[in-house]
Amino acid sequence: MLKGLVKSTLATKRIAKYNRMVNAKASAYDKWQKTIEKNPVIQAEAPVQYETGENGELIPHKLPEPKVKVVPYAKVWEMTDAKNDENTVYIFVSPKGKLTKRAGEVIKQYFIAHPEHNVVYADEDEIGSGGKFIHPFFKPDWSPDSYLNAFYIGSLFACRSKTVHDAIPEYDNAVKMLGGTANKKNSPEQVGLEASLLSADVLFCMLAIHERAFAKRTGTELPIGHIREVLFHRNAGQDVFYGRSFHNSRHMLLKPVTVSIIIPSKDHPEVFQQCLNSIIETTKDAGITYDIVVIDNGSSASNRVKYGVYASRAPRKNGLTKINYIYKLQEFNFSAMCNQGARSSTGEYLLFLNDDIEAVKEGWLTELISQAQLKHVGAVGAKLIYPKTDLIQHAGIANVRRGPVHKLQKMHDNKSHYFGYNRGIHNMIGVTAACLLISRRKFNDVGGFPEELKVAFNDVDFCYSIFEKGYYNVCCNHTYLLHHESLTRGLDNLDPKKMERLASEGEILMKRHSHLYNKDPFYSPHLTEDETISAIIPREDYTPVEDIPYMSPVLHEKGIKGAREDQCLRVGCEYNASMDNWLYGVNTAENLEGYYLKGYSFVIGSDNAIYDKKLLLRLVERYEDGAGPVGPEVYSFTPYIWYRPDIRVRLQDQVNVDLTGYKLKIKKGELKPGFYQIGMLAIDRTSRLKLINWVPNILHVKN
């Protein structure tokens, strides 16, 4: 009884301490934002312009600083009569909240620093109880197709006065088309506040049209600016989209089209048949004529017969004209197979489809084509759902610190995530080639799929190249298909050989697109950058990696005494390489900053508040089929504790898993060169229990 009382007392103290830490870390955004608002605004250097003097000499002079004027959305219609406003910046703002104190100066300095931009918008959040700032909306950079589906611009935007006056005639015409007039009697203000909010949306649209923001770009620069700072605090409960949120809608084709559907497949004839039948039964738009090309790189003789039978027996209806089955014994190279299919077809549009895709919604192909027909749009994908669930497999690709990831993977689609990310139409840096549609002309413009990337990242590289050509990639999250990829499919990071191949192809990807390292115009850097965090949430920790202290190892020559290996201690390793690569990119050859590891760890079925964690490393020898420890020596480190609300959301049946994240920095020279396996030690501070688990991840320490 006494032993149980002591343990209960210790547990109570640990849990109280744990809760204090969680409360402190859970308020990280509010503290971070309030700190920013106290900081002085960085002053921009005014650009220099040159005038030609009387003798032909060039005379430099700086442009004067613009004046700033705030216009409520309810007064937008009055801009028709605005005068004497040369060199003025107008900030149009919602009446349902307030600008930050530094908003005007930040916007003014932005326009000084960016003469190429005439229109800009910014991020925003919500005022919670007690004045706490909550629910920040960290918006994407200019996303024309997202904007056409939803007014994601939200509560404020700004522009130069000249641009306003240039766009006003079209604004007046648009307001009249919507049933209002430009005169005061029937102005939006007179017919209600909601109409005035719509009027602001219309004005922004006309400004965007004036800036050719719905056209193909000439490079990677975007035509409308975005200030990645919260400059507006919405009133509690206020709809950020002001009535025009991301939504499902039906679109029409601009003209009849021909499509070639390319399906790589090997030894999956029954899976292919399901895919084929689903395409035929859900494609009924009279404006679509299509053929199917099956690329088989080595099926068995019996399966080849089945492919032929299924292809010949498929009914030629609903636009299907023919099925071309191409067999060629060759190594698996997804890129080469897709390119072969493109060369062997004639459709105006190319749809690359995995054989384990099943179409279930009539009209899905029409929706994809309706986006791909737009001149500025490149690759078009769709939301993919795991069968017999509402779990998301794909809702667009985001490019985070370690490369491309499927955000929202295995999250439930029965609710809207992060301001409608899984609803409506969104611009993305990329989409998966499990379902990817593009016009043949644009496909040829980028040279097809990169054949040096045989297995992984080929679709991502393809999408990056499309973006670099000036097109906008789109994911249609207002429609979906089923993807029969297994929910329990083995991960590449559980196989050393696959891990090496994945790392090698990831390196090739980022070398080919080094300017995109840790950059994604359509995914804010203020959102979580970890590829294993499916949820789209603000960054869990605003402490820069540079400010986390280095930790020295403790050597245990005979291993960890009294500890037992147990799979109930789960360990995830999300990064384990040099600090230089983390900070500066994959092309960094030097290792001056040491090493960095990060991930998460928790004990299944236990209260995680009672455990202290030590990250472990042990030297291993590498074999043909894996690796093994050199000896009993183990190094332990005390990691930095990292707040992980995403783990709490995903593991709602586990106790106190908010602080399961870890980060660790190791100075260069602390460990002798070699390969180190990564593990974790969990120490129960209410008993003598010690748990260890090792994962396949290897840290390579170099000279």
TrEMBL record:
Protein name as catalogued: Glycosyltransferase, GT2 family
Source organism, top-level taxon: Bacteria
Gene Ontology molecular functions: transferase activity
Source organism: Butyrivibrio hungatei
Residues annotated as domain Glycosyltransferase 2-like: 260-425
Presence of keyword Transferase: yes
UniProt keyword annotations, A-Z: Transferase
